[in-house]
């Protein structure tokens, strides 16, 4: 909740407004943040209200639309962060671009999202750094997109230790009909699971870890979907199970952005089915630190 939203509840003379902020508004903001942190710790996911303005998200949408109109390449870049442009239709080819080709996205990640995540997670001094790992812009076209099956992010990345945090936010409002994100609350406490094909759930060759069940409710987990407006953002733990439904709307594009961060120094630890694009971006051997302009450190505890 923003300060100006809280101030409307207090009828004071302007000369008393400083006292209102210090004695009444700031404590409420701290309590609100602490409540959100408790939800995140318990569920492995939390929704943040009033994170963005519609104007700044609409400007990102225009920037994306301008780029994707003529984009054909799937090149893997080795000199800066990569953005994956992923249409959720079986058989569709992922496209790519450099993060610098989407300057509005880059500015939002560096100047707004990363500082917020750092302050949100570092309250208990559990986070060493934020290292940008992946940026994806998803598009689920109406009537022909598919389910993206249950998975957890950490299962797909060849790093150790494997602690991550991700944010997800829409480029347009996403209601229940359009295929919102769905999470299994508390699943982040159940350890790492096996990686599968996200479209078919086919197990990757050599994968020997226990798989996420078809229905997490069968093992007692609460499953909840998260419709979002352009002003909202989700934060989820890298171990939290999630999936998304097809876009069953008549003509609405369901578009969202995922930004993933590592939260501590990691080394390369390859396994079957992990990090295809990741391993093409950097020359590393097992046990090497992940240090590359492709994966910049955007915040570090001083």
Automatic annotation (TrEMBL):
Xref: InterPro entries: Phytyl_CoA_dOase-like
GO molecular function, one term: 2-oxoglutarate-dependent dioxygenase activity
Protein name: Phytanoyl-CoA dioxygenase
Source organism of this protein record: Prochlorococcus marinus (strain MIT 9303)
Lineage: Bacteria, Bacillati, Cyanobacteriota, Cyanophyceae, Synechococcales
């Amino acid at each position: 909740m923003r300060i100006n939203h809280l101030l409307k509840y207090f009828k004071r003379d302007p000369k008393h407004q400083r006292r209102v902020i210090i004695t009444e508004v700031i404590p409420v903001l701290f309590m609100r943040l602490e409540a959100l942190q408790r939800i995140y710790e318990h569920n492995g996911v939390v929704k943040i209200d009033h994170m963005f303005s519609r104007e700044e998200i609409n400007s990102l949408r225009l920037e994306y639309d301008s780029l994707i109109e003529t984009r054909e390449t799937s090149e893997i870049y080795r000199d800066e962060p990569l953005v994956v442009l992923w249409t959720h239709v079986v058989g569709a080819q992922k496209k790519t671009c450099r993060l610098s080709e989407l300057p509005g996205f880059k500015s939002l990640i560096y100047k707004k999202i990363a500082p917020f995540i750092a302050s949100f997670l570092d309250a208990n001094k559990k986070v060493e750094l934020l290292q940008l790992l992946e940026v994806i812009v998803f598009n689920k076209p109406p009537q022909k997109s598919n389910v993206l099956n249950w998975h957890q992010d950490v299962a797909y990345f060849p790093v150790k230790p494997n602690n991550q945090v991700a944010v997800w936010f829409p480029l347009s409002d996403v209601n229940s009909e359009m295929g919102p994100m769905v999470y299994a609350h508390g699943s982040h406490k159940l350890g790492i699971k096996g990686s599968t094909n996200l479209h078919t759930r086919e197990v990757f060759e050599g994968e020997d870890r226990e798989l996420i069940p078809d229905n997490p409710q069968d093992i007692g987990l609460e499953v909840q979907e998260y419709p979002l407006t352009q002003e909202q953002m989700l934060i989820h733990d890298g171990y939290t199970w999630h999936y998304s439904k097809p876009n069953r709307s008549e003509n609405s594009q369901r578009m969202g952005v995922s930004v993933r961060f590592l939260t501590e120094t990691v080394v390369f630890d390859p396994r079957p089915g992990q990090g295809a694009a990741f391993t093409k971006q950097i020359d590393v051997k097992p046990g090497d630190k992940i240090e590359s302009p492709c994966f910049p450190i955007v915040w570090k505890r001083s």
